[in-house]
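Field: COMPLEX_INPUT
Field: COMPONENT_COUNT = two
Field: RESIDUE_TOTAL = 629
Field: MODE = joint
Values follow.
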Amino acid sequence: MALPSSPFTSKASAFHIPPESNPPCSLLQKHPSLSLLSGCKNMETLKQIHAQFIKFGLHNTHFGLSKLVGFCALSPSGNSNYALLIFDAIENPTEILWNTIIHGYALSSNPELALEFYVKMVSLGNYPNSYTFPSLFKSCKKLMAAQIGKQVHGCVVKLGLDNAVSFTALIGGYVSRGCLDEARELFDGIPVRDVVSWNAMISGYAEVGRFGEALSLFENMWKLNVTPNESTLVSVLSASLAVFRHMQLERVEPNDVTFLNILPACAHMGALDMGRWIHVYINKNCHHLQNSSLWTSVIDMYAKCGSIEAAKQVFFGLETKSLSSWNVMISGLAMHGNGHGAIDLFSKLIEEGIEPDDVTFVGLLSACSHGGLVELGRLHFSSMVQDYKIQPKLPHYGCMIDLLGRAGLFDEAKSLLECMDIEPDGAIWSSLLGACRIHGNLELGEYAASSLFKLDPNNHGAYVLLSNIYAGAGRWNDVARIRTMLNDNGLKKVPGCTSIELDSVVHEFLVSDRTHPQSEDIYRMLDEIDRRLEMAGHVPNTSEVHYDMDEEWKEGILSQHSERLAIAFGLISTKPGTTLRIVKNLRVCGNCHSATKLISKIFNREIIARDRNRFHHFKDGCCSCMDYW
DNA sequence: CTAGGGTTAG
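Field: COMPLEX_OUTPUT
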């Protein structure tokens, strides 16, 4: 249905300002039939109640009518036609009735009707109030009608309605269009903010991946102000302090929705301290959330922050385990390279009589792939199709291609690729390309790369992988050619960035970064690391540097990779023996991988590193991935 | 009596 256009543009706009607000119309009646409505479950009962209303004369009261229309228009088991039928028979509908109808349409699949009704309401001389606007904003959001949304916005401003609800709905509209800075401006201007307003803003940041801002906004709910500087991204103060401050200051209390938004942000940032604190908080304050899917997010957070043991503890402590909680646990084990653990858990799930879904198998197959369990991977893949009647989707094929490719079984990978009933996506070609890099398969690598470029010419990572393959083969001309291609296409490298959380503060490092306040000490430590690595016989493998530079320069760059900086910072900032946890946005390079193994031994530190794909637990000179990644 | 925020599983 077309949007009403004229009323919004003409002089006699629906968005003009009323001379004064209407007096509230309240007609409260007490009658036994009214209590019937609260238990009303479906339209059939509603019609009986309606009949009762007529019998006792309640159908002429605004209160009774509001209740009836409210159920029909707003309840999921209601009926908007019936609501309209009642509504149309009312001579002078109250604001409440108009608002209810408008809200009903805002919730429906025809939100444009809400706007139409609003126009009708105003043209009949009724004025909108603070209850009207949130529904209108919701409709505009659904319809992606930014212009109309702005007009409604203007109207709210002119009317001077300064309640949080209208503002929050408006923020929701801006957030949904990705206009976060505008949303933030509004948010900062709300006279009174409550949890829902905070949640709207936090979820906006989290949704578009501005996790740092989401986290710091969360922190600000208690005004735990820490001064951030350019090189450190402050996430939150220590947990106990936060709770204490929270109790002292009467700040807005977060709720389950807040955590639902914040936990994934912690997971992405690897902010374990903060995640842990939220977990404690939920345990203490949210007893009513026993069976909430919030726990799934907690498990996922622990797994992604490198604490797989804590994830297990939460998972096994759950009274009722939803399929999603099984799924995140299996995927978590997969991420940590614990293939057998994932498979065992899958068997348990089957024993408990739970029906796995396609997501379960993505986790299971990726566990096989990260654990190098070729035979088991094949087995579960065919079992998925035959026993569980689940059609493989792209991620399943992706896991299998990854599994076979890493194992160097290129013929089998190719034949699987050929018999797929779906077009392979970029992820599949990337896996194959990655496998070709590991095994130095130049021919297939070139093919995978060209397929990938067709799908996504701007995939910087693909150029790097291909270039690495050429570099490994000493084909420096081709390396240079790729570099030119990158420049010609104006592609910028995603800068490698590693973060480390210390005392609840997340510190981020880029390659050769010197912006950290403790930069001097960090570089002194880097020299020390280099010296001791050399003593231990570490020979930097420069083959993955995709520029043809002289060896010494390459080594220089290698030892200043972002992960090395984060580790050096971790070494100088923590007590001997403390486990270091780092998070990298890209895949760890081969050189850093072997260097980190040695560092774990030389400095006697366990180093848990998350890269783009998975976790590496470095200990005593070995890595949990068994060099298989 | 009517209004705003909602994740996770490669």
